[in-house]
C-alpha cells in the first residue's frame, strides 16, 4: 500500500514539474539588448521575427556571410531603425502599386 502511495506522489510531482516547464518555455531568440551595428559587407540576410506566443518581443537577426553566425540587433540602434524604415517604405510602395 505504501509503495502505491509513493508512486502516486511521484507521478503527481512529475506532472506538476512538466506543467511548470511547459509554461516557462517562453523563449526569445535574442538574449539581452543585442548589438548596435554590423558591417554591411558582412551581412548575408536579415530576419525579422514578429512578437509571438513564445516571445513578446520583435526581434531583428542579422545572418552573417560565410557561416560566421547570427547577431541580434538592438532595436534602438541606427542600423535597426534604418532597416525598419526601409521595410515600411517598401511596404508602402507595394501597397500603392496594388491600388
Automatic annotation (TrEMBL):
SMART domains in UniProt: SCY
GO molecular function: chemokine activity
Keywords from the named record: Cytokine, Signal
Chemokine interleukin-8-like domain location: 25-87
Entry keyword annotation includes Transmembrane helix: no
Record GO biological process: defense response; immune response
N-terminal signal peptide: 1-20
Cellular component GO terms, alphabetical: extracellular space
InterPro entries for the chain: Chemokine_IL8-like_dom, CXC_Chemokine_domain, Interleukin_8-like_sf
Top-level taxon of the source organism: Eukaryota
Family: Belongs to the intercrine alpha (chemokine CxC) family.
Keyword flag S-adenosyl-L-methionine: no
Name this protein carries in UniProt: Chemokine interleukin-8-like domain-containing protein
Amino acid at each position: 500500500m505504501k509503495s502505491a502511495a509513493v508512486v502516486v506522489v511521484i507521478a503527481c510531482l512529475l506532472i506538476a514539474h512538466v506543467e511548470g516547464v511547459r509554461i516557462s518555455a517562453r523563449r526569445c531568440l535574442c538574449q539581452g539588448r543585442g548589438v548596435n551595428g554590423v558591417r554591411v559587407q558582412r551581412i548575408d540576410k536579415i530576419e525579422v521575427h514578429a512578437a509571438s506566443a513564445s516571445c513578446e518581443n520583435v526581434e531583428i537577426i542579422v545572418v552573417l556571410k560565410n557561416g560566421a553566425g547570427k547577431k541580434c540587433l538592438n532595436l534602438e540602434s541606427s542600423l535597426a531603425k534604418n532597416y525598419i524604415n526601409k521595410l515600411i517604405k517598401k511596404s508602402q510602395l507595394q501597397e500603392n502599386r496594388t491600388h
